[in-house]
């Protein structure tokens, strides 16, 4: 085990998320530069619109949404409108720039659960300015295996002899794994950076016992495995690092000046809002204050 990262709970107004990446001392795992555990929460009917994620911009990354429970509706500036449900994948490639919203319209009408993971995958430098796009994949399109008390769905990339149809821009793996108590699973030997996030239950790994809300980062080039001490749900992720990335607000880039340009574009209204959700947006937040003088 190279590092254990505890999620940091933070409120989005109507529910909490557990922020895992980035964190001091760990900016990424392979190309994964952001990892949020949404919920779990049970919404009552009639939740306010303030719970929704209003239109906002991205550059230089792909957002990956995956749900365990509930439903949310994605709308973006390339004309997409797509509800996502458990086991499905929404993969949005921002490239040179996209805007999108996430609305909880079914929960507003009926109430119900919300539980899922959203990650950001940095794009290789050659693809940072590619055309924005969106793709949705039904649960039945994703390959699975079920053996020895382990059932796994390959969300993206390649692992365990499986290949996901989800189009990626760099080598990686990303899986949803359900383990029965006592089941054990070895992680892929490659790529260089690998991690496991415990969504539910308790696992043993690296000589320690780990409960829900922890990201376990494994040392490169060494065997790694997880063993479930209770029934557990785990997300496995990994890939090759793409080099340093600047991250500010919703923007990711290998060039600091590109982020400044994106901020200026959003502030000036030069980024198109989603076709079907253009009545409001999230303003650019104030720049963070400079770090204090270490002697102050």
Approximately what portion of the residues adopt beta-strand conformation?
Answer: over 45%
Tell me the overall shape. globular
Cα radius of gyration in angstroms: 19 Å
Main sheet characteristics: 8 strands, antiparallel
Low-confidence stretches: 291-296
What separation lies between the terminal Cα atoms? 36 Å
Query: Number of helical runs?
Result: 2
What's the helix-strand series?
EEEEEEEEEEHEEEEEEEEEEEEEEEH
Helix proportion of residues, in percent? Answer: under 10%
Description:
The C terminus is likely disordered. The longest helix has 12 residues. With 296 residues, the chain is mainly beta. The relative contact order is 0.19.
Task: Give a short overview.
The chain is mostly beta strands. The strands form 5 sheets. Strands 1, 13, 14, 15, 16, 18, 21 and 23 form an 8-stranded antiparallel β-sheet that branches.
Short descriptors:
25 strands; 296 residues; mainly beta; disordered C terminus
Please outline the helices and strands.
Blueprint: E1 3-6, E2 8-11, E3 16-21, E4 32-43, E5 53-58, E6 61-69, E7 72-76, E8 81-84, E9 89-93, E10 98-103, H1 105-110, E11 112-122, E12 133-137, E13 144-147, E14 150-159, E15 162-163, E16 172-179, E17 184-186, E18 193-200, E19 202-205, E20 208-211, E21 214-218, E22 225-228, E23 232-239, E24 246-248, E25 251-253, H2 256-267
Antiparallel strand pairs: 1-21, 2-3, 3-4, 4-11, 5-10, 6-9, 6-11, 7-8, 7-10, 9-12, 13-14, 14-15, 14-16, 16-23, 17-22, 18-21, 18-23, 19-20, 19-22, 24-25
């Amino acid at each position: 085990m190279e590092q254990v990262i505890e999620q940091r709970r933070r409120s989005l107004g109507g529910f909490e998320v557990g922020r895992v990446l980035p964190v001091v001392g760990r900016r990424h795992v392979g190309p994964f530069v952001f990892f949020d555990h949404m919920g779990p929460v049970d919404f009552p009917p009639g939740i306010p619109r303030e719970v929704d994620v209003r239109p906002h911009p991205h550059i230089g990354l792909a957002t990956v949404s995956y749900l365990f429970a509930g439903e949310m509706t994605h709308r973006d500036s390339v004309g997409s409108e797509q509800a996502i449900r458990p086991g499905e994948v929404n993969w949005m490639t921002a490239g040179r720039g996209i805007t999108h919203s996430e609305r909880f319209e079914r929960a507003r009408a009926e109430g119900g659960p919300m539980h899922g993971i959203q990650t950001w995958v940095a794009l290789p430098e050659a693809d940072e300015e590619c055309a924005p796009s969106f793709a949705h994949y039904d649960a039945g399109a994703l390959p699975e295996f079920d053996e020895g008390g382990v059932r796994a769905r390959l969300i993206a990339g390649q692992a365990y002899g499986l290949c996901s149809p989800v189009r990626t821009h760099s080598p990686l793996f990303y899986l949803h794994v359900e383990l029965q108590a006592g089941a054990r699973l070895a992680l892929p030997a490659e790529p260089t950076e690998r991690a496991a996030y415990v969504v539910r239950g308790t696992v043993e790994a690296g000589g320690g016992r780990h409960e829900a809300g922890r990201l376990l980062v494994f040392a490169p080039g060494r065997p790694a495995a997880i063993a479930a001490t209770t029934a557990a749900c785990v997300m496995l992720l990994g890939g090759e690092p793409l080099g340093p990335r600047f991250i500010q607000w919703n923007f990711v880039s290998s060039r600091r000046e590109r982020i400044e340009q994106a901020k200026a574009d959003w502030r000036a209204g030069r980024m198109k809002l989603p076709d079907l959700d253009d009545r409001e947006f999230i303003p650019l937040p104030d720049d963070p204050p400079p770090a204090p003088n270490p002697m102050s």
